Amino acid sequence: MISENKLSQQAIDLENEYGAHNYHPLPVVLSKGEGVFVWDVEGKRYYDFLSAYSAVNQGHCHPAIIGALKTQAESLTLTSRAFYSDMLGKYEQFVTNYFGFDKVLPMNTGAEAVETAIKLCRKYAYEKKGIAENEAQIIVCKNNFHGRTTTIISFSNDEVARKNFGPYTSGFLKIDYDNLEALEETIKANKNVAGFLVEPIQGEAGVYVPSEGYLTKAKEICEKHGVLFIADEVQTGVARTGQLLAVNHENVKPDILILGKALSGGVYPVSAVFSSSEIMDVIRPGQHGSTFGGNPLACAVAIAALNVVTDENLAEKAEELGQLFRSEINTRLVEKSKFVSLVRGKGLLNAIVINDDEDSSTAWDICIKLRDNGLLAKPTHGNIIRFAPPLVMTKEQLLECVSIIESTILEFEN
Ligand SMILES: *Cc1c(COP(=O)(O)O)cnc(C)c1O
């Protein structure tokens, strides 16, 4: 095994020796990607069923996005925001029209965009809502995932992500996900609630889809009490769930929208915070920023990536393929296997739950077998496997992947 995969082993050894051990990757070393496929250094081909946590919705190395990257890279990559560029305004006009918001604040990573949204929400609360300085509270949900900065982990309840990284940032109230009474009661009990930060589907937690109507009613409650509804769509956005945004399933317009990941098709770190002018205009020069945020390369890549989403009808494809995926997995696996208790999700953001406890290694072991059989996925917990392939997949490819998943798990069971 080790001699057979010598190149892979070398690459893994290098990461182990010289890199921080802040991840536990599945043992596969990739060197090439195209569309729904990735190849390892030995030349073996795999279906990518993670899409870099939903960043590569448009497929690996999409020629239109790579083309835009190359063209822009040859003329201008970074000015910083000390100067104007001929790309930023164009991008801002394009992207605000695309998602239907007045204004955008460009950043790079998802966590930075979440931080930006928190700052924006707080500042708006102090300057427009009259909440006393340093008293603003933002409601978040249990089992959330919003990133890895010190403030964001302060309101996580993942002990692995939190422990020994304190002291934590205050100003957050945690409630159960998918619980409207908890939302309303918490708002009523605290006069300083400025915002409600929520994932329309909890991805990292294991693809938890809330009850139908949850987002609509949560937005209504927020509106009634003058609380900003902040949707973190870093994972669910950009066509992943079968709509351009997951909130569109319930016709909800967030006061603040956070995007990242697939905003660039996984080609370059691009994130963004959207809101009305009334909210965004509380941020004045010098109060927030990023050297790379909104750079010309990011702008060119994101425009191209979003054009791919429209041109290739990726939202419709995700909706259609997602229905097919869940119904196939239901009849071919959930009903047949004692092992898989359910499949859930929306569009092409799905997960299966394995009949085992949370800290078992079953999901990991299945992912190793899936890898051997040519499909890459990663557990979100000991007993949950997320399936999020690129949205450019064909129906035939999806059915082939279902067969791989079916036979791998049935084989595993015996
Ligand atoms: C991935 C993710 C983030 C963090 O994005 P990074 O680019 O890794 O910082 C934030 N929120 C959600 C919902 C995510 O899935």
TrEMBL record:
Q: Which CDD domains match?
A: OAT_like
Transferase keyword on record:
yes
The UniProt similarity line reads:
Belongs to the class-III pyridoxal-phosphate-dependent aminotransferase family.
Species for this entry:
Lutibacter oricola
Short name of any one Pfam family annotated for the protein: Aminotran_3
Q: Which UniProt keywords apply?
A: Aminotransferase, Pyridoxal phosphate, Transferase
Gene Ontology cellular component list:
cytoplasm
Which major enzyme category is it?
A: transferase
A GO MF annotation of the entry reads:
pyridoxal phosphate binding
Record-linked NCBIfam families: Orn_aminotrans
Gene3D superfamilies per record:
Aspartate Aminotransferase, domain 1, Type I PLP-dependent aspartate aminotransferase-like (Major domain)
> Which protein is depicted?
ornithine aminotransferase
UniProt-listed InterPro entries: Aminotrans_3, Aminotrans_3_PPA_site, Class-III_PLP-dep_AT, Orn_aminotrans, PyrdxlP-dep_Trfase, PyrdxlP-dep_Trfase_major, PyrdxlP-dep_Trfase_small
The protein's Enzyme Commission number:
2.6.1.13
Name the Gene Ontology biological process terms: L-arginine catabolic process to L-glutamate; L-arginine catabolic process to proline via ornithine; L-proline biosynthetic process
Q: Which cofactor does it need?
A: pyridoxal 5'-phosphate
Q: Does the keyword Transferase apply?
A: yes
Pathway(s) it belongs to: Amino-acid biosynthesis; L-proline biosynthesis; L-glutamate 5-semialdehyde from L-ornithine: step 1/1
